[in-house]
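Bumping with the actual sequence this time:
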Amino acid sequence: MTDPHAAPAGSPAPAGAHATPDTVEAVVRAQLAKALGGRRGMVEAAVPTLLFTLTWLVVKDLRLALTVSIAAAVLLLVVRLAQRSSVQFVLNALVGIGIGWLFVHIAASRGGDQDAQALAYFLPGLLYNGVYAVGLAASNLVRWPLVGFMVGSVTGEPTEWRQDRQVVALCSRLTWLLAAPCMLRVVVQLPIWLAGTYGVLDAGAAVAVLGILKIALGWPLQLAALAAMLWVLGRNRTPVEPAAA
Protein backbone atom coordinates (compact mmCIF):
# COMPACT_ATOMS: atom_id res chain seq x y z
CA MET A 1 0.00 0.00 0.00
CA THR A 2 1.25 3.48 -0.87
CA ASP A 3 1.78 5.86 2.02
CA PRO A 4 -0.09 9.15 1.17
CA HIS A 5 2.49 11.06 3.23
CA ALA A 6 5.53 9.56 1.48
CA ALA A 7 7.78 11.71 -0.67
CA PRO A 8 7.23 11.37 -4.44
CA ALA A 9 9.30 8.73 -6.17
CA GLY A 10 12.71 10.00 -7.16
CA SER A 11 12.65 12.94 -4.72
CA PRO A 12 15.64 13.31 -2.38
CA ALA A 13 15.42 11.81 1.09
CA PRO A 14 15.00 14.26 3.98
CA ALA A 15 18.20 15.43 5.63
CA GLY A 16 19.40 12.96 8.25
CA ALA A 17 17.18 10.17 6.94
CA HIS A 18 18.67 6.71 6.48
CA ALA A 19 17.97 4.73 3.32
CA THR A 20 16.21 1.44 3.93
CA PRO A 21 17.56 -1.48 1.88
CA ASP A 22 14.97 -2.56 -0.69
CA THR A 23 16.25 -6.09 -1.30
CA VAL A 24 16.95 -9.05 0.95
CA GLU A 25 20.50 -9.17 -0.40
CA ALA A 26 21.15 -5.54 0.60
CA VAL A 27 19.72 -6.19 4.06
CA VAL A 28 21.99 -9.19 4.63
CA ARG A 29 25.09 -7.36 3.34
CA ALA A 30 24.40 -4.45 5.69
CA GLN A 31 23.71 -6.71 8.68
CA LEU A 32 26.83 -8.81 8.06
CA ALA A 33 28.96 -5.66 7.93
CA LYS A 34 27.41 -4.51 11.20
CA ALA A 35 27.83 -7.89 12.91
CA LEU A 36 31.51 -8.17 11.90
CA GLY A 37 32.35 -4.53 12.56
CA GLY A 38 33.71 -3.99 9.08
CA ARG A 39 37.41 -4.42 8.28
CA ARG A 40 38.53 -2.80 11.52
CA GLY A 41 36.34 -5.00 13.71
CA MET A 42 37.56 -8.12 11.95
CA VAL A 43 41.19 -7.11 12.46
CA GLU A 44 40.62 -6.28 16.13
CA ALA A 45 39.04 -9.66 16.73
CA ALA A 46 41.84 -11.54 14.94
CA VAL A 47 45.06 -9.78 15.98
CA PRO A 48 45.28 -10.90 19.66
CA THR A 49 44.72 -14.56 18.78
CA LEU A 50 47.13 -14.34 15.86
CA LEU A 51 49.84 -12.84 18.10
CA PHE A 52 49.29 -15.52 20.75
CA THR A 53 49.69 -18.27 18.18
CA LEU A 54 52.77 -16.76 16.52
CA THR A 55 54.46 -16.05 19.87
CA TRP A 56 53.85 -19.60 21.06
CA LEU A 57 55.15 -21.11 17.83
CA VAL A 58 58.33 -19.00 17.94
CA VAL A 59 59.33 -19.02 21.63
CA LYS A 60 57.25 -21.86 23.15
CA ASP A 61 56.51 -19.68 26.19
CA LEU A 62 52.85 -19.83 27.17
CA ARG A 63 52.99 -16.98 29.68
CA LEU A 64 54.69 -14.69 27.16
CA ALA A 65 52.20 -15.63 24.44
CA LEU A 66 49.28 -14.77 26.73
CA THR A 67 50.94 -11.51 27.78
CA VAL A 68 51.54 -10.43 24.18
CA SER A 69 47.96 -11.19 23.14
CA ILE A 70 46.48 -9.38 26.15
CA ALA A 71 48.77 -6.37 25.62
CA ALA A 72 47.68 -6.14 21.97
CA ALA A 73 43.99 -6.28 22.93
CA VAL A 74 44.44 -3.64 25.64
CA LEU A 75 46.28 -1.36 23.20
CA LEU A 76 43.45 -1.70 20.68
CA LEU A 77 40.96 -0.99 23.47
CA VAL A 78 42.81 2.19 24.50
CA VAL A 79 42.79 3.42 20.89
CA ARG A 80 39.05 2.79 20.64
CA LEU A 81 38.39 4.60 23.91
CA ALA A 82 40.53 7.55 22.82
CA GLN A 83 38.52 7.77 19.60
CA ARG A 84 35.24 7.31 21.50
CA SER A 85 34.17 4.55 19.13
CA SER A 86 32.65 1.12 19.74
CA VAL A 87 34.80 -1.23 21.81
CA GLN A 88 32.61 -4.28 21.14
CA PHE A 89 35.05 -6.25 19.02
CA VAL A 90 38.08 -5.54 21.19
CA LEU A 91 36.10 -6.67 24.24
CA ASN A 92 35.10 -9.83 22.36
CA ALA A 93 38.79 -10.58 21.82
CA LEU A 94 39.56 -9.94 25.50
CA VAL A 95 36.74 -12.24 26.58
CA GLY A 96 38.11 -14.96 24.29
CA ILE A 97 41.59 -14.57 25.76
CA GLY A 98 40.14 -14.63 29.27
CA ILE A 99 38.28 -17.87 28.61
CA GLY A 100 41.44 -19.39 27.13
CA TRP A 101 43.43 -18.32 30.19
CA LEU A 102 40.80 -19.94 32.45
CA PHE A 103 41.18 -23.25 30.63
CA VAL A 104 44.98 -22.94 30.89
CA HIS A 105 44.66 -22.31 34.63
CA ILE A 106 42.43 -25.36 35.07
CA ALA A 107 44.93 -27.53 33.16
CA ALA A 108 47.78 -26.20 35.32
CA SER A 109 45.85 -26.85 38.54
CA ARG A 110 45.47 -30.47 37.44
CA GLY A 111 49.23 -30.85 37.03
CA GLY A 112 49.43 -30.40 33.28
CA ASP A 113 52.75 -29.36 31.79
CA GLN A 114 53.16 -26.40 29.45
CA ASP A 115 52.16 -28.42 26.38
CA ALA A 116 49.01 -29.65 28.14
CA GLN A 117 48.21 -26.09 29.14
CA ALA A 118 48.69 -24.89 25.57
CA LEU A 119 46.35 -27.62 24.34
CA ALA A 120 43.82 -26.42 26.91
CA TYR A 121 44.02 -22.91 25.45
CA PHE A 122 42.79 -24.23 22.09
CA LEU A 123 39.80 -26.08 23.58
CA PRO A 124 37.42 -23.08 23.98
CA GLY A 125 37.81 -22.24 20.28
CA LEU A 126 36.92 -25.79 19.31
CA LEU A 127 33.89 -25.74 21.59
CA TYR A 128 32.77 -22.36 20.24
CA ASN A 129 33.07 -23.46 16.63
CA GLY A 130 31.30 -26.74 17.38
CA VAL A 131 28.35 -25.08 19.12
CA TYR A 132 28.10 -22.38 16.45
CA ALA A 133 28.18 -24.93 13.62
CA VAL A 134 25.54 -27.12 15.27
CA GLY A 135 23.30 -24.12 15.94
CA LEU A 136 23.50 -22.84 12.38
CA ALA A 137 23.01 -26.30 10.87
CA ALA A 138 20.07 -27.04 13.16
CA SER A 139 18.39 -23.75 12.22
CA ASN A 140 18.55 -24.80 8.57
CA LEU A 141 17.32 -28.33 9.22
CA VAL A 142 14.20 -27.02 10.97
CA ARG A 143 13.68 -24.43 8.19
CA TRP A 144 14.40 -21.43 10.42
CA PRO A 145 17.79 -20.31 8.99
CA LEU A 146 19.37 -17.82 11.36
CA VAL A 147 20.31 -15.43 8.56
CA GLY A 148 16.58 -14.94 8.02
CA PHE A 149 16.33 -13.06 11.29
CA MET A 150 18.65 -10.42 9.81
CA VAL A 151 15.90 -9.76 7.29
CA GLY A 152 13.23 -9.72 9.99
CA SER A 153 15.17 -7.20 12.05
CA VAL A 154 14.90 -4.69 9.18
CA THR A 155 11.37 -5.38 7.94
CA GLY A 156 9.98 -5.04 11.47
CA GLU A 157 8.45 -8.54 11.52
CA PRO A 158 10.81 -11.22 12.93
CA THR A 159 9.16 -14.19 11.17
CA GLU A 160 7.37 -12.68 8.16
CA TRP A 161 10.23 -13.69 5.86
CA ARG A 162 9.34 -17.39 6.29
CA GLN A 163 6.23 -16.89 4.14
CA ASP A 164 8.43 -16.33 1.08
CA ARG A 165 10.07 -19.55 -0.13
CA GLN A 166 12.58 -17.61 -2.20
CA VAL A 167 13.78 -15.71 0.86
CA VAL A 168 13.93 -18.88 2.97
CA ALA A 169 16.00 -20.63 0.28
CA LEU A 170 18.40 -17.69 0.04
CA CYS A 171 18.80 -17.45 3.81
CA SER A 172 19.38 -21.20 4.05
CA ARG A 173 22.21 -21.06 1.51
CA LEU A 174 23.80 -18.14 3.35
CA THR A 175 23.45 -19.88 6.71
CA TRP A 176 25.24 -22.97 5.37
CA LEU A 177 28.04 -20.76 4.08
CA LEU A 178 28.29 -19.08 7.48
CA ALA A 179 28.46 -22.48 9.19
CA ALA A 180 31.00 -24.02 6.80
CA PRO A 181 34.18 -22.46 8.31
CA CYS A 182 33.17 -23.56 11.81
CA MET A 183 32.45 -27.09 10.64
CA LEU A 184 35.77 -27.33 8.80
CA ARG A 185 37.74 -26.08 11.82
CA VAL A 186 36.19 -28.71 14.07
CA VAL A 187 36.60 -31.54 11.54
CA VAL A 188 40.29 -30.71 10.98
CA GLN A 189 41.41 -29.58 14.44
CA LEU A 190 39.48 -31.79 16.84
CA PRO A 191 41.22 -35.07 15.88
CA ILE A 192 44.62 -33.38 16.37
CA TRP A 193 43.60 -31.94 19.73
CA LEU A 194 42.32 -35.34 20.89
CA ALA A 195 45.48 -37.09 19.63
CA GLY A 196 47.70 -34.64 21.51
CA THR A 197 45.59 -34.75 24.67
CA TYR A 198 45.48 -38.56 24.90
CA GLY A 199 49.08 -39.27 23.87
CA VAL A 200 48.48 -40.62 20.37
CA LEU A 201 50.49 -37.65 19.05
CA ASP A 202 53.29 -35.80 20.83
CA ALA A 203 51.65 -32.91 22.71
CA GLY A 204 54.23 -30.38 21.56
CA ALA A 205 53.76 -31.37 17.94
CA ALA A 206 49.97 -31.23 18.33
CA VAL A 207 50.18 -27.70 19.76
CA ALA A 208 52.41 -26.59 16.86
CA VAL A 209 50.02 -28.05 14.27
CA LEU A 210 46.99 -26.52 16.02
CA GLY A 211 48.74 -23.15 16.10
CA ILE A 212 49.41 -23.24 12.37
CA LEU A 213 45.87 -24.42 11.63
CA LYS A 214 44.41 -21.70 13.85
CA ILE A 215 46.04 -19.13 11.59
CA ALA A 216 45.30 -20.93 8.30
CA LEU A 217 41.69 -21.73 9.21
CA GLY A 218 41.02 -18.41 10.93
CA TRP A 219 40.30 -15.21 9.06
CA PRO A 220 41.50 -16.47 5.64
CA LEU A 221 38.79 -19.12 5.79
CA GLN A 222 36.24 -16.67 7.19
CA LEU A 223 36.98 -14.18 4.42
CA ALA A 224 36.60 -16.93 1.82
CA ALA A 225 33.18 -17.81 3.25
CA LEU A 226 32.14 -14.15 3.26
CA ALA A 227 33.32 -13.78 -0.35
CA ALA A 228 31.14 -16.75 -1.27
CA MET A 229 28.21 -15.17 0.56
CA LEU A 230 28.71 -11.88 -1.26
CA TRP A 231 28.83 -13.77 -4.56
CA VAL A 232 25.48 -15.40 -3.75
CA LEU A 233 24.06 -12.05 -2.65
CA GLY A 234 25.21 -10.43 -5.88
CA ARG A 235 23.34 -12.87 -8.10
CA ASN A 236 19.75 -12.06 -7.14
CA ARG A 237 17.57 -9.16 -6.06
CA THR A 238 14.82 -10.43 -3.77
CA PRO A 239 12.46 -7.56 -2.80
CA VAL A 240 11.97 -6.85 0.88
CA GLU A 241 8.33 -6.94 1.88
CA PRO A 242 7.93 -4.67 4.92
CA ALA A 243 5.46 -5.58 7.62
CA ALA A 244 2.03 -3.98 7.29
CA ALA A 245 1.43 -0.95 9.51
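The C-alpha coordinates above came from a reply further down the thread. Residues 165-197 form the longest helix (33 residues).
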